[in-house]
């Protein structure tokens, strides 16, 4: 049917929620032209004098269509991209938009392994990143819709709403499409087949829970058991970014459990200097214990109250370094990349996992390696505390930290009493600063307080606007502490600079509840 050629060239990209061939057909049939394109219409019946040119004319039309579908030896200019080139651009855009920290080159390698099947590539990346069930791909999730919109824009599609409707229509009728395509003796569609499939797309069914296209992925991959180790791309940096995201969530949970006034006045120091997430307990409890232990063991000469932490990225990055070093200390034969996969498989609960794998091995060697890799201010003291002293108070500390609500100041004080080591005198080395250094520190302090005031005003404004837009009755936010991911907001950065002019921050009220993720400022 040459009349479908304009629609194929305009919208016949191979990405969507089915296999590439089904996507091409569905996207072509779902497309609606604004104006008819006469360039590929079937020729009108010719008289006897022109009938001999009819075959040649059809051949030219077919060749013209194919030249606009397949890719050439070199990339085409943006305005002349073929359907294949636009499809590839859309596939890459979807993966790099949906999966944070996924480089374009690795997205291409996954697509090559998946034979340009988008959902197979998604499945491989999820397996490689050890996604848990609640984080798996769901076609109706906002993240999927946003990534699909990025793919549609990069592929030059003109109507995202129509494209999205077609994708969901395919999901609801995927069995009918599959049966028609795989029918015995079906080498090409008839006009009746095209009409019937078009009617299906025009009448999508309501999606049910079992209408999940990811269930068909393993059948299309040919190998029912996917070995993650054979994925031909070692996404060390991408995996690290994934681990950093998960660690960040644990830090927000840990901070929400501190009494807000105590966190603002003094616990923030121990958190940023030594509040690492590795240790003998779960990650959140490790952060709390390590923060409190450092605070009481190396108390400051004076306190500095804050209501904003510019960035948690530094302590989170050092925590990840410590987690990786802990794994490598007990499994020296594996690579850093494999250590990251080990962490993701164990849900970052590294010590308990190591104990199950190698009983009675969590001694001071692993903790010493973790503390040194994390640039702990005093790795020797930390290693001695966690491997020799903490076991005697472990059960009592766990009982005090139970639950997920804010820990009372009284319980915090009790935990601090348990964590104090009476037999070991600990002291932080005293560094005498020059006059110039003191001036610089004073300047940094003034700049921080100025930035804190600015950010707090912006967050309070965002909260007021949010409350008014949602018309929330009886709600009141007592803004506690603000946690950012970037301490360079507003600075001019270069193209290759990893610091950005914008930030995402989390705000907590004085009850420790995360109340809003304001827009990037």
TrEMBL record:
Biased composition (Basic and acidic residues): 36-49
Annotated spans, Disordered: 36-59
Compositionally biased region (Basic residues): 50-59
Positions of the PIR2-like helical domain: 2-126, 246-357
Origin superkingdom: Eukaryota
InterPro entries, per database record: PIR2-like_helical
PANTHER family from the UniProt entry: EXPRESSED PROTEIN-RELATED, PIR2-LIKE HELICAL DOMAIN-CONTAINING PROTEIN
Protein name: PIR2-like helical domain-containing protein
Biological source species: Digitaria exilis
């Amino acid at each position: 049917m040459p009349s479908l050629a304009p629609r194929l060239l305009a919208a016949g990209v191979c990405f969507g929620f089915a296999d590439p061939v089904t996507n091409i057909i569905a996207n072509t049939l779902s497309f609606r032209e604004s104006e008819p394109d006469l360039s590929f219409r079937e020729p009108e019946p010719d008289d006897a004098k022109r009938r001999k040119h009819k075959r040649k004319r059809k051949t030219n039309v077919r060749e013209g269509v194919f030249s606009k579908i397949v890719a050439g030896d070199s990339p085409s200019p943006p305005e002349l991209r073929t359907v294949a080139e636009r499809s590839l651009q859309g596939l890459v855009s979807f993966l790099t938009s949906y999966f944070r920290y996924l480089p374009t080159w690795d997205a291409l390698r996954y697509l090559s392994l998946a034979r340009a099947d988008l959902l197979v590539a998604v499945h491989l990346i999820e397996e490689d990143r050890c996604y848990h069930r609640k984080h798996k791909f769901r076609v109706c999730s906002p993240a999927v819709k946003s990534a699909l919109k990025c793919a549609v824009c990069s592929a030059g599609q003109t109507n995202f709403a129509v494209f999205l409707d077609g994708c969901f229509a395919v999901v609801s009728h995927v069995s009918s499409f599959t049966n028609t395509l795989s029918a015995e003796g079906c080498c090409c569609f008839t006009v009746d087949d095209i009409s019937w499939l078009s009617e299906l797309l025009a009448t999508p069914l309501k999606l049910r829970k079992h209408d999940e296209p990811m269930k068909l992925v393993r059948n299309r991959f040919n190998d029912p058991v996917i070995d993650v180790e054979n994925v031909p791309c070692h996404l060390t940096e991408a995996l690290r970014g994934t681990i950093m995201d998960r660690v960040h969530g644990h830090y927000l949970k840990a901070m929400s459990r501190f009494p807000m006034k105590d966190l603002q006045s003094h616990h923030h120091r121990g958190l940023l200097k030594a509040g690492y997430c590795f240790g003998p307990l779960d990650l959140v409890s490790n952060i709390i214990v390590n923060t409190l232990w450092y605070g009481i063991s190396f108390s400051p000469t004076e306190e500095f109250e804050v209501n904003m932490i510019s960035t948690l990225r530094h302590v989170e990055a050092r925590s990840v370094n410590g987690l990786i070093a802990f794994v490598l200390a007990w499994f020296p034969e594996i690579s850093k990349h494999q250590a990251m996969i080990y962490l993701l498989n164990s849900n970052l609960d590294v010590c308990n996992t190591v104990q199950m794998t190698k009983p009675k091995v969590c001694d001071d060697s692993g903790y010493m390696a973790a503390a040194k890799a994390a640039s702990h201010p005093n790795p020797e003291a930390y290693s001695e505390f966690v491997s020799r002293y903490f076991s005697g108070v472990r059960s009592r500390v766990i009982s005090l930290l139970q639950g997920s609500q804010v820990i009372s100041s009284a319980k915090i004080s009790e935990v601090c009493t348990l964590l104090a080591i009476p037999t070991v005198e600990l002291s932080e080395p005293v560094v005498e600063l020059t006059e110039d250094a003191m001036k610089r520190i004073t300047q940094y302090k003034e700049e921080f307080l100025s930035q804190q005031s600015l950010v707090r005003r912006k967050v309070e404004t965002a909260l007021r606007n949010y409350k008014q837009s949602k018309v929330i009755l009886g709600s009141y936010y007592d803004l506690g502490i603000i946690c950012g991911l970037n301490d360079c907001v507003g600075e001019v950065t270069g193209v290759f600079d990893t610091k950005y002019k914008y930030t995402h921050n989390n705000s907590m009220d004085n009850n420790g509840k995360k109340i809003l993720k304001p827009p990037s400022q």
